[in-house]
Amino acid sequence: MVLGIKILGYIFARLDTTLLEQIVSLLAKLFFVFPSARKETLLSNLRYAFPNWSESKIQRTARVSVARMLEMGFFSMTYPFMNKERWRSAVIYSEDTEKKLIELRKSKTPVLFLLPHFTLFETLATSPNFRPFGGKKLGAIFRPNRNPKLDRWINSARKSTGLVTFSRKEGLLRAKSFLKEGNWLVVLFDQNAGDRGILDLFFDRLVSYTTLPNSLTRNTGALPVFIYPKRIRFFQSKLEIFDINHDKESSVATNSHRLLESILKADNDGCPDWLWSHGKWKIHARVETRYQLLNKRKQLISGKTLSRCTNFFIRMPNWLGDIVMAIPILLAIRKGRPDIRFSLVAKSQFIPLLKMFNLGEDYLALPERGLSYFLNFRELLKCKPENYLLFTNSLRGDIEAYLSGSRQRFGLNLPKRSRPLLTHNFDAAELGEEEFNKMHQTELWEQMARHFGLKEIVSRDPVELGANRQKWKIGIVPGSSNSPLKRWAPENWILLIKQLSKIDEGLVFHLYGTNQDKRITEEISSFFDFNFVCDHAGKTDLSELAEELASCRLVIGNDTGSMHLANMLGTPVVVLFGPTNSNKTKPFFESNLTMIHSTTDDINEIHIDDVVNCITTKL
User: Fold this and answer.
1) Element (DSSP H or E) covering residue 501
2) Is 402:409 a contact under the CB 8 Å cutoff?
3) pLDDT, position 131
4) Distance in angstroms (rounded) separating the CA atoms of residues 128 and 138
């Protein structure tokens, strides 16, 4: 590999610059023909930074940025084989910049140059005018490459220009000594310090950067200076130089990022010379810290309110009851990551309910099933999510997550199941069979979220809608969408209504359900006057159903989604259980809950008198 790069560099150094630029332009066009993770990162970064831009402008800037990235690579390969005249001409200095450099040389003070990742940053290593002179040297701290042989060759090429190089991994103490001796040192700074860095805002989005510049200036007395080589043509830059103001209120690293942000924003095209194709906002990228900001949140220098800018996608469950049971986990993650923009992916019928409770910033309604399902799903995605959490356990959901392009796809791995399309999972088998069988579904998802870093308490407090409960209004949910075995027979509901009406003649009963439940509700309501028993089945969307349930004095029903929703809203509920495991599927929220179980798997073993007796105590 290294030999091939050397050969290409030797050839490129002997080609006409115009031809090289045409080769770069062609490669940039080819780059955009094929999908790639770097292409998705590039487009996502631009959309994050410039949300008001049109898609066509983002695409134009992205294409230029790719060409600049390739130009950077070509220059790094080529300059070891250039003559000194081409080195000298690679950087142009304005009169003001020359004066500033002369001033820095005369000061006899060590200088720390902060250099961002711009296309032609390497030209400063080759320029003989960017030197301290007077027996002093120019050094630079670089991040090592993953390929040791390639790293040795690049390091050798830099040293051939007279540059003294220091590795970030091993050379920091030597770099401090180098500065104390009155030399100049360049730090190529980025936004990828991860958990070791300090959190701050960059384009109103949390970023983690190193405090190394702060440490170097504080320990050596070096003067901090911001520089960047502004590209003016192929393989040629013009050096821009700025003083960095710093005091007790703001640090060198902070103000360097402020300057960088102002430069990028001031350019009408978003300054495509900067490496937009690299991951810039990777904080807490480690799996075990993904769903909680670490305590470095307290060190936010900017003091600004966090904006929800970083995209996380949440694939919601396919059943109403599961949706409700997942909501406490979603709320806890939102609290733990106040910087995250949540896009909730769900069936269209659930979107009104999710919006009603402000559970996300964006809502993606899944397309209708069919041959083009996954193509239609891919078209819904406007940007690549940094994390994709699935509350589903289906292959379809896993394929959706894979198509999103997210590099982190999290989910729950049930015993004896495999999910190869996920990048990380919480293996429920680790809990043991006994613990798994008795653990509530919400608690199981909580274990999953904690596996990925969640620290917040998962609240059981009901969500109040502010609706007035009507003393005479009794809700009944006689259906069950996913299993007929969970349904108490219609004749039982008819008898129950008759018995309860004898206890209190002022009660009015409201039947709730989906279109699929209308046969059941019509059978029940046909025995009564419509002013006494009101049939709402199939007539409400989920947000309207929530308002109805919140206004009821009491809701009675089978183990089904509407009962979970009523429980979440704080409405007292009486739930009938037959074949289902109530340990796993009972309503989760701490409001008035009564569960009545059949002695067998047959729900119709529940006697009418037992239900009446339970309800009488609540009326």
Assistant:
1) helix 490-503
2) yes
3) 94
4) 10
Per-residue confidence (pLDDT) for residue 424, from 0 to 100: 96
Closest of 522, 489, 439 to residue 607, by C-alpha? 489
Residue 297 banded pLDDT, cuts 50, 70, 90: very low
pLDDT of res. 506? 92
Segment 271-281 mean pLDDT:
89
Question: CA-CA distance, 569 to 591, in Å (whole number)?
Answer: 8
Digit-coded pLDDT (tens) for 361-419: 999 999 988 889 998 898 888 778 889 999 999 999 999 999 998 889 999 999 888 99
Asked if residue 480 lies in contact with residue 514, where contact means CB atoms within 8 angstroms, the answer is no
Kind of pairing between the strands at 236-243 and 362-365: unpaired
69 to 58, 74, 108, 271, 476: CA distances (angstroms): 16, 9, 36, 12, 64
Which whole-number Å values give the CA distances from 251 to 190, 205, 228, 314, in the listed order? 16, 19, 19, 37
pLDDT digits (tens, 9 = 90+) for 77-102: 999 899 888 989 999 999 999 999 99
CA 394 – CA 348 distance, rounded (Å): 18
End-to-end CA, the chain:
80
The structure tokens 């919140």 sit at 550
Output the pLDDT for position 249. Answer: 62
C-beta atoms surrounding 215 within 10 Å: 15
474-494 tens-digit pLDDT: 999 999 877 889 999 999 999
**Three-class HEC string of 366-422:** CCCCCCCHHHHHHHHCCCCCCEEEECCCCHHHHHHHHHCCCCCEEEEECCCCCCCCC
| 481 closest CA partner among 558, 555, 533 | 558
Angstrom distance (rounded) from CA 358 to CA 117:
39
Residue written as tokens 């630029």? 21
Residue closest to 177 by CA, chosen among 139, 214, 142, 144? 139
Structure tokens at 401: 């997550």
| pLDDT higher than threshold 80 for residue 277 | yes
Mean pLDDT across the stretch 457-473? Answer: 91
Cα 584–586–591 angle (5° rounding)?
A: 140
Helices (H), 267-386: 320-336, 351-356, 373-380
Amino acid found at 271: C
At residue 67, what is the residue type? A
The radius of gyration of the chain's CA atoms, rounded to the nearest angstrom, is 32
pLDDT over threshold 60, residue 295? no
Angle among Cα 181, 182, 187 to the nearest 5 degrees reads 100
> CA–CA separation, 121 vs 72, rounded Å?
8
Torsions phi, psi for 507 (to 5 deg): -70, 140
* 8-state DSSP, 274: B
Angle made by CA atoms 168, 171, 174, in degrees to the nearest 5: 140
Please report the DSSP string for 434-484 in residue order.
Answer: HHHHHS-HHHHHHHHHHHTT--S----------PPPEEEEEEEE---SS-G
Flag the least confident range among 70-84, 160-174, 524-538.
160-174
pLDDT band at 200 (very low <50, low <70, confident <90, very high): confident
Alpha carbon of 619 to those of 181, 500, 558: distances in Å?
A: 86, 9, 19
- What whole-number distance in Å separates Cα of residue 362 and Cα of residue 390? 16
